[in-house]
UniProtKB/TrEMBL annotation:
This is Uncharacterized protein. Residues 129-154 are annotated as: Disordered. Residues 129-138, 145-154 have a biased composition (Low complexity). It comes from Prauserella alba.
Length: 154
């Protein structure tokens, strides 16, 4: 028997995002869908770890196409992760970040004849950004990534 569905692979941040990563906005609770809009929100809990799930949207400056540059990351933590870096401009909501405990899980994305391999990203928090990964001179890219690949498998 092969690996179980949903297996996560640990990946160094610099390998997954050689040009770095920019947080767009804030980290929010990843709440369950509820048909009753008046019901109080319930935050999702990760089945593998038992930790609460948080979500955030990032931009990968290594991509020119908007659909490929947008990345969704699920944080697994009992407390809300807080970025350790300053915003580019106060109030803009965008800041360079480095993720801790980065893991990826393969998923099938797209529809019909446009299906392809994509990735779901998981992290445990933010690390203090020492230096910009873009200055390392690497130009490798993540294969098969798209905006749809960050969507969770239903």
């Amino acid at each position: 028997m092969g690996m179980e569905r949903g297996h996560r692979f640990e990946v160094p941040f610099e390998q997954a995002f050689p040009a770095g990563l920019v947080l767009n906005g804030q980290v929010e609770p990843d709440n369950e869908f509820q048909e009753n809009r008046n019901a109080p929100p319930r935050q999702k809990v990760d089945e593998a770890t038992g930790l609460r799930r948080w979500k955030a949207v990032f931009s990968d400056p290594g991509y020119a196409k908007e659909a490929e540059a947008s990345i969704k990351v699920i944080f697994l933590s009992d407390v809300q992760p807080v970025p350790t870096t300053e915003e580019f401009m106060p109030g803009c909501g965008m800041r360079p970040v480095v993720l801790e405990g980065l893991q990826v899980s393969p998923v099938v994305t797209g529809q019909d004849k446009f299906k392809r391999l994509g990735w779901m990203y998981f992290a445990t928090g933010f690390a203090a950004a020492q230096s910009s990964p873009a200055s390392s001179g690497k130009s490798a890219r993540r294969g098969g990534e798209s905006a749809a690949s960050s969507a969770e498998a239903a």
